[in-house]
Amino acid sequence: MSLFLLNILLALAWAALTGRFEPVNLLFGFLLAFALLWLAFRRRNEGRYFKQVPRVFELLAFFLIDVVRANLRLARTVLSPRMNLRPAVVAVPLDLKSEAGLVLLINLVTLTPGTLGLDVSTDRRIMYIHTLWLDAPEQFVRGIKQGYERRLMRILEA
C-alpha cells in the first residue's frame, strides 16, 4: 500500500475517532498521520514521500499567498478612480516536461486573479499568459518560473 493512501486512511480514522469530519480536523489528522508514518518508515527507503508532502504544502501556501495578493491588487484597481491597467500577453519559456505539470501550472496561473493562461505552444516550450498588470516582462516571467514552475518541478520531476 502506498504511503499516501495509508496517510489518507489514517487521517480518516482520526476523524472517525474524534467524530468530527471538518476540514481542520482532517488536516490535523493528515499531519498527525504523516508524523507517525515518518517515525515508522524513516529508516526504510521511503524518503521520496516524506520530501514530497512538505513540497506540496509549500506550493499550496505560495499559491494561497499569491491569490490573496492578487485579490488585494485587483480590489485596489477596481476601487481606484483611475484604473491603472497595463494588460499584455507574455510568452513564458517552460522547463516543465510532464503533462501533469503543464496542466497544473496553467491552472494555477488561471486561478490567480489578474492572470489567465491562454495557450501552450505545440512543442510545449512556451506558455502564453494574459496579465492585467505588466510592469516589467522579465520580472513577470521570473515570478512564474521561480514561483510556480520551480515548485512544480520539485514535486513532479524529482
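^ that was protein a. below is b, sequence first then the C-alpha cells
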Amino acid sequence: MKAVIQRVSSASVTIDGAVRSQIGPGLLVLLGVGHNDSREDIDWLVKKIAGLRIFNDEAGIMNLSVMDTGGDIIVVSQFTLMASTKKGNRPSYIAAAGHEKAIPLYEQFCASLSSAIGKPVGTGVFGADMKVALVNDGPVTICIDTKQKD
C-alpha cells in the first residue's frame, strides 16, 4: 500500500456535485492498493497514520498525532499512486490491485483506521470521479509505502 498523508485545515470530497465527505483540521489520506497488499499492510499503515506526530504542540513543534488533536480523517482511494513511470511517458498501473481485491482492502483500511482513532473516517467512493479539495496546512505532506518499512 502507498499513502500520501496531508495535514489539512479542511478537506472535502465531492461526487457528481454532492459533497460526500468534509472535515476541518485533520488528515487527508490518498490510498493506493497494490496486488501484493494484505491485512498486514493495513494494520501497519493504520498504526503509523494514527500515531504520526505531524501536528504542532503548544510550542509550535510537530509533536502531536491526529488522535492527540482530535482531528478528523478522509481516506480517498487512488490507484494512480501505484503508477510506474520507468518507461516512456504513459504511466503503467500494473502494480495496482484490481477492484476485486482493492475494494475490500480499502474498506478494511477505512474501518480499521476509524476504529484506531475512535471516530468515523470520511471516504470517497471507490472508482468514482471525485473532486478532492483541500487546504494543506503547513504544507505538511508525508508519503508512506508499506513495502519500504525498513
